[in-house]
TrEMBL record:
Gene3D superfamilies: AttH-like domain (2.40.370.10). It holds the Pfam family CrtC. PANTHER family: ATTH DOMAIN-CONTAINING PROTEIN-RELATED, TERPENE CYCLASE ASQC. It comes from the Eukaryota. The lineage of its organism: Eukaryota, Fungi, Dikarya, Ascomycota, Pezizomycotina. This is AttH domain-containing protein. It comes from Sclerotinia sclerotiorum (strain ATCC 18683 / 1980 / Ss-1). Residues 161-272 form the AttH domain.
Length: 412
């Protein structure tokens, strides 16, 4: 790849990955100084990074490595430092030090393998809906498809469905791109990076949807790098909180055109080997008209002992991680007649920076339940308080009961 990067060096090496060429130089007179350049050949985007001490630590004694070792470590650098310029564009990484390639993470198949989207939809006739579409791919060759639809203007109107379905071709990819297909459901991408444009489609007894989601949102890397210890292992999670969304929603016999100027999608990708043995709650928080988005984890584990209370906050200028304490009250709970499980419906969060939030479900029953399937609650909530200069917002919450109550359907 000569000509891409020229400098007086002891060595230079490059690797082509995901439509990008990454080149690293080690300056002859500065053994501790590395210069990196990444070129997205499809977009022409070029970026340089120097004084990368993290890179230096991972490529120690470079001149002593064989070419194979150089490439292996260079790929690590690509995943950790330079994935910012994957073909999906700058918005997919926001120049943050994630520990893996986001496009490649769309295609991996670890034991915990979750693809999650909440679509905040406004129809052409100005009716607002909250649609959850979640695919949890299991090692058994099946996929649990969870979905719910809430009429935000009239929360009494609520529908939900969860099914365990055979995964078509027992694969989450086709021709090197993301494709999860099952009877009555599809989540796929025709983009080379499997992120830039994604399609969600599905049908239930009451509604159908066919939505196109474009990765126009800056990424939120949970815990700062998209990787953290969770329960009995490690998990990876990244989010695109406000993606452009278009398409159709059919409710009973009414076909609703989605107004893409007033609609958006929070896409959340979680995968890895970790899981918890107790209940966990996750909040995806929006503040309309603001760049502030928050992914908030409230999670407990008995063995090994772990109590997560942290928010990863996407701001105008990057990410911040803030600890919090939670207060819940017995009167703010609801017991499901289906699962007999008691869910919290309101949370008071007090953050270490002095901010606070009151998060409250718009209706009690937002459980997604079916016999012989995983059950959980995914409530749409209001958000009030003081948080990074914001006062009001909304959130989609996931409350997952302990795996011990899920029987043979446990996925963590």
């Amino acid at each position: 790849m000569s000509g891409i990067l020229e400098c007086p060096i002891d060595f230079a090496t490059s690797v082509y990955r995901n439509g990008c060429t990454v080149v690293i130089c080690n300056l002859k007179d500065r053994p501790d100084y590395l210069l990196c350049r990444v070129v997205n050949e499809s977009s022409g985007l070029t970026s340089d990074a120097d004084h990368v001490t993290y890179v230096a630590r991972n490529l120690n004694n470079l001149s002593q490595y064989s070419n194979g070792k150089l490439e292996q470590n260079l790929l690590h650098v690509y995943h950790v430092v330079l994935a910012a310029y994957a073909p999906c564009g700058k918005q997919c990484s926001a120049e943050l030090p994630n520990q893996y390639s986001l496009p490649e993470s769309q295609l991996v198949t670890p034991p915990v393998n979750s693809f999650w989207s909440t679509h905040f939809l406004t129809s052409a006739n100005s009716t607002e809906y909250v649609l959850l579409s979640h695919a949890f791919v299991l090692p058994s060759g099946t996929v649990t498809v969870r979905t719910s639809l809430l009429d935000a203007s009239n929360p009494e109107n609520y529908w939900q469905s969860t099914k365990n379905l055979p995964l078509q071709n027992n694969s989450t990819t086709k021709n090197g791109k993301l494709r999860i297909e099952a009877p009555g459901f599809e989540f796929s991408s025709n983009s080379n990076d499997s992120i830039s444009t994604m399609v969600w489609s599905g049908s239930t007894d009451h509604y159908e949807y066919n939505l196109t989601v474009k990765a126009t949102s800056r990424v939120l890397l949970n815990a700062g790098t998209g990787y953290f210890s969770w329960g009995n292992g490690n998990t990876s999670q990244w989010s695109l909180p406000s993606c452009q969304t278009s398409g159709m929603l059919t409710l009973d016999d009414q076909i609703l055109q989605v107004d893409e100027e007033r609609s958006m999608t929070w896409y959340d990708r979680q995968f890895g080997f970790g899981g918890v043995d107790s209940e966990f709650t996750w909040f995806g928080v929006h503040f309309p008209g603001s760049e502030v988005k928050a992914s908030i984890w409230l999670s407990d584990n008995k063995d090994p002992a772990q109590h997560l209370r942290f928010a990863t906050v996407r701001t105008d200028y990057g990410l911040e991680i803030v600890r919090f304490n939670v207060t819940i009250e017995p009167e703010n709970a609801w017991t499901s007649p289906n699962s007999n499980y008691t869910y919290q419906t309101r949370w008071f969060l007090d953050f270490d920076n002095g901010d606070f939030l009151d998060i409250k479900s718009v209706r009690n029953d937002q459980e997604i339940y079916a016999k012989n399937s995983i059950f959980s609650s995914s409530p749409f909530t209001t958000v009030k308080g003081r948080f990074f200069g914001q006062k009001t917002g909304f959130a989609l919450v996931d409350i997952s009961p302990p795996t011990s109550l899920q029987g043979g359907n446990a996925v963590f």
